[in-house]
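lol ok so funny story. i was supposed to be doing the assay writeup but got distracted and ended up predicting the structure for this chain instead. priorities right. anyway since i did it might as well share w the group, maybe its usefull for someone
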Amino acid sequence: MRPFFAIFFLLSVAIQLHASKRTFRLELAVNEEISPENLITVQAGQEFDLKIRIFELPEDKLITKYKMMHMKAMHMVVAKKDLKTLSHVHPTLDMMKGEFKISMNQPTDDPDNQDLPQILSEPGLYTAYIEFSPKEGVTSPLPESSYFQIRVLGETNYTPPQEDPLSSKGTIVKFFNQDGTKGEFGSKYRITLERVVHPGCDGNLIEFLIHLEEYKVRPNPMGDPIEGYIAIYELEPWLMMHGHALILPEVQNYENIYFEHMHAMKLFDSNTLKFFVFDRKRLYRGINKLWVQMRHEGIVQTFHFTFDHKYVEPRTQNCQ
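and the output, tada:
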């Protein structure tokens, strides 16, 4: 194995989503009432308790023991079909019953579940992706995954996501307010997405570089205050990492559900979060949306970018 390919392989082991070929069945209950076929139906903004039990097939055995992943027994990502909203939350495990529970659309004091009060506030079709790691059976260093759908009743108009405009350098530069909403020049954050493709022999390594800046007004002993964007070097770890990122495609094939969940640590002298994906034609060719989460000044911030992924053929030289 060539050293360059070996690096790709090791990175891909660290970041690919699916841990094994184990298969699972989900049992979902809304306010104690079991919902059929991996689908729950609720009203927009409806407060309800969701319980999740996971059974391993073909034995249909209830899983009761789970390993912690980034301080949580389960990570759940809930995304609207048009990719306008995304929530990253963490159901609580009842170890005696072997079930997870989470209170949807309800206030919470849990800083790791800050998205819960507004998680299903708009009508439409949502997909909930879950990651978990059973303690028993064929273990893997990577989490297992599954999904279910949530139909929020009410009138809705589906609008396909649109690619963010590219700068002259091929990057995407966006401004965000302190509450994470869309901003403009002079808003709290200026965040730049840079994508770099490294062709390999059996696929490509794709770097997603997130450059972080904040707007500051600094005193100037020589005259007027200095205003402008400066690099953000100070981030606080959230769930053991400086950065969390998720990629979802515009179109989902529910026979082969896909999303990418990545993590990054930031070097102390850098304002860049570096995420990696090893792409063997797995990353959806077309419109994808990238969400990046980090904790800055005590608040978990979420920034998003929509990009058009075009697959680059792997290199063929020096691959033997």
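Residues 1-18 have pLDDT under 50 and may be disordered. The chain has two domains: 3-153, 172-309.
back to the writeup now i swear
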